[in-house]
Amino acid sequence: MRTYELMFIVDPRVADEDVVAMTGDYRQMILGGGSEITKEESWGRRKLAYPIGKLNEGKYVLFYIASQGGQTSLAEVEHRMRQNDKILRYLTVRTDEDLKRAGSRIAPLEPPMGATVAGAGAPPPASTVPTPAPPAPPVDRERHEGAAERGE
Amino acid sequence: MARPKKVFFRRRKVCKFCADKVDYVDFKDVKLLQQFIPERSKILPRRISGTCARHQRLLQQAIKRARHLALIPFTTD
Known about the structure:
The structure holds 2 protein chains of 2 kinds. Chain A has a single domain (2-150), classed as Alpha-Beta Plaits, CATH 3.30.70. Chain A is built from 4 helices and 5 strands; from the N terminus they run βαββαβαβα. Chain A has helices at 16-32, 74-83, 96-102, 146-150, and strands at residues 2-10, 36-52, 55-67, 87-94, 116-118. Chain A has a 5-stranded antiparallel sheet. By secondary structure, chain B is an all-alpha fold. Helices cover 39% and strands 0% of the residues of chain B. The longest helix of chain B is centred in the last third of the chain and has 16 residues, at 53-68. Chains A and B meet through strand 2, strand 3, strand 4, helix 3 and helix 4 of A and helix 1 and helix 4 of B.
């Protein structure tokens, strides 16, 4: 089985309901292609690190996809995203190999504040079950905070 | 007369990821990635951060992915 993460940025001028509708369309496409969505996150409006098409913000949506290889429709989904000019950026990353290599040591990343998370049906496969994260390492006090503080 | 050789005590740098036993660097983990992009937003070289080759590679990949999604900047001016 292959797993993917598909993240995309929607034009912030698109209303929230329309983002939900768009997300729904893509969800249908993915499900229609025989893949499952194990988790869905909506990060909401977020500042872009640099302007894209004169826009400074974007709405982030993230799918976690599980697929039995071969029949995936992700190429098709990407194609549609490319054509949709409301989608500023998208990125699909295949994660199963990395996750397998890492075993269960990966603690799932906390979505940022204000994000909505949907489990979308089936519980996540065993490999993604949260394991108690190791205690956070002491943050390097000398590290440069410049980039974060400027926070353009 | 030759001056006595200065002795530097350099703290041995340890790969942060090896210490934490990290096997996958997530491109969505902006907080983590930001520790490796100093002011000019360039990727911090191994020479400075002490990251091992394997983890630098994972980190580099993650930073590039995060840049594409505008989670972190390519550059600051």
